[in-house]
Amino acid sequence: MGAVAKALTKVVVCPLCDYMGEDVNKVVDAITKAVPRPKLRCPKCGAEVDANSFVTHMRKHGRVGGKTITCDICGAKLNGEGAFLRHMKEHLIVSVRRNGMDVYYCLVCGQEFITRNSAITHLIKRHSLE
Question: CA angle at residue 102 from 87 to 124, to 5 degrees?
Fold first, then answer.
């Protein structure tokens, strides 16, 4: 039985293979064979961004309207900056089910984690998203 992949949000943003969409399986191969790159391409706007500031760059893809922030990537409406930042991080993590366990991958660098929170903490500390 093969691995089953799923996105934490409805749209996966993969700077490794320049894909942005709902087909998680399209990025799983790129993730598991990831080689860190110094520059990544934002699938939303096409900007070339330093790997360590890619997540910070993703903050630009939100629009403030009153008390809500709309994600420019998937259209989700979020209440407040904190919810929006967590949502943006989730665009950059994918879950892969292997041997009955979920494994989480950082789409910025391809690193693997055993918990969702450790993947999010990694994004905060390693890729500079507070």
Answer: 35
DSSP class per residue in 42-95: -TTT--EEEGGGHHHHHTTSEEEETTEEEETTT--EEESHHHHHHHHHHTTEEE
Q: Which residues contact 13 (CB under 8 A, 6 or more apart)?
A: 20, 43, 44, 58, 73, 91, 92, 107
In this predicted structure, which of 5-9, 41-45, 106-110, 122-126 has the lowest mean pLDDT?
5-9
Q: Tokens in use for 28?
A: 């799983």
Closest CA to 15 of 128, 67, 44: 44
Tell me how far apart the alpha carbons of residues 92 and 111 are, in angstroms, rounded to a whole number: 11
User: Side chain identity at 24, as an amino acid letter?
Assistant: V
pTM of the model: 0.72
